[in-house]
């Protein structure tokens, strides 16, 4: 039997070439690489144990001994900030991957099958979109309880809807294309047509959305940790560090400023990378920039 290969809408080589021609993408990639390296080598970089308490050094301002100061329990803020990078990146990456897989699968099924299946899935998406992202995450996290696993699940649920929409729209257009019709005539089943012929032609759009929503996931994680629905203490997270320093914000400004800057830089890096990927994936925008 003749093997039918689906033509790819966006060639990876062209996408990467356009990406690296964007100067802002280099800033985002550089910041992101630095943040990932900090998370990977946290045990080697952190000067102190992030959980070690020493009341004698309580609320020490930034100094040569404690570069970013200490918190209300005498713990080194820099060490906790470094280890908090692990939690933020882990939660953001895993939550987005879950939302990407589940949302893309539902979107492709809705667009390809249509009918009652499409109406049920889009109705489910409309329900999710009727709640603000933070409010929905708050509701799910409150029902599941405070833990790392539940936090990831809560954030993943809040991000399924955008991936359903970004996958459904191109599927409706692609299922009418000649290469998909040819696949049907050769006897290929819906599963193969969706996974082998349709999905590869939209994967670039899904990846762009994933980069942008990972930044949202990190902000949501910090917000839920701030109100006590994140990873339980004493595990260091950026959101919980800001919450702990909020009561002493006038006397110990470093407790909230440095974790806030860490969130800002991470979100900025992911946003720059996502915008660069989006521009590189859009031929019209790419031609305007060239």
UniProtKB/TrEMBL annotation:
Is the keyword Acyltransferase in the record? no
Which compartments is it annotated to reside in?
Cell membrane
Query: Where does the UniProt entry say this protein principally localizes?
Result: membrane
Would you name any one GO CC term? plasma membrane
Domain ABC transmembrane type-1, first and last residues per copy: 85-274
Keywords from UniProt, A to Z, are: Cell membrane, Membrane, Transmembrane, Transmembrane helix, Transport
* Record InterPro entries: BP-dependent_transpt_permease, MetI-like, MetI-like_sf, OppC_N
- Mark the transmembrane ranges: 24-48, 89-114, 252-274
Stated family? Belongs to the binding-protein-dependent transport system permease family.
Q: What is this protein called?
A: Opine ABC transporter, permease protein
């Amino acid at each position: 039997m003749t093997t039918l290969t689906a033509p790819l809408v966006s060639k990876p080589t062209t996408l990467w070439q356009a990406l690296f021609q964007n100067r802002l993408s280099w800033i985002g990639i550089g910041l992101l690489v630095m943040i990932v390296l900090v998370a990977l080598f946290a045990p080697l970089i952190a000067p102190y144990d992030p959980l070690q308490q020493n009341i004698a050094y309580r609320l020490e301002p930034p100094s040569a001994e404690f570069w970013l100061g200490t918190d209300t329990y005498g713990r080194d803020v820099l060490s906790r900030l470094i280890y908090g990078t692990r939690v933020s990146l882990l939660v953001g990456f895993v939550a987005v991957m879950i939302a990407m897989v589940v949302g893309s699968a539902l979107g492709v099924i809705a667009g390809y099958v249509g009918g009652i299946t499409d109406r049920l899935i889009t109705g489910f998406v409309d329900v999710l979109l009727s709640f603000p992202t933070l409010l929905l995450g708050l509701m799910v996290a409150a029902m599941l309880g405070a833990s790392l696993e539940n936090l990831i699940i809560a954030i993943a649920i809040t991000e399924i809807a955008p991936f359903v929409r970004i996958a459904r729209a191109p599927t409706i257009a692609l299922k009418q294309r000649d290469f998909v019709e040819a696949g049907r005539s050769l006897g290929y089943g819906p599963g193969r047509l969706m996974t082998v012929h349709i999905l590869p032609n939209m994967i670039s759009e899904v990846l762009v959305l994933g980069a942008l929503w990972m930044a949202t996931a990190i902000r949501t994680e910090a917000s839920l940790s701030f109100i006590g629905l994140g990873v339980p203490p004493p595990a260091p997270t950026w959101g919980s560090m800001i919450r702990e320093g909020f009561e002493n914000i006038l006397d110990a400004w470093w407790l909230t400023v440095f974790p806030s800057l860490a969130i800002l830089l991470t979100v900025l890096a992911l946003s720059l990378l996502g915008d660069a990927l989006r521009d590189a994936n859009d031929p019209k925008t790419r031609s305007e920039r060239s």
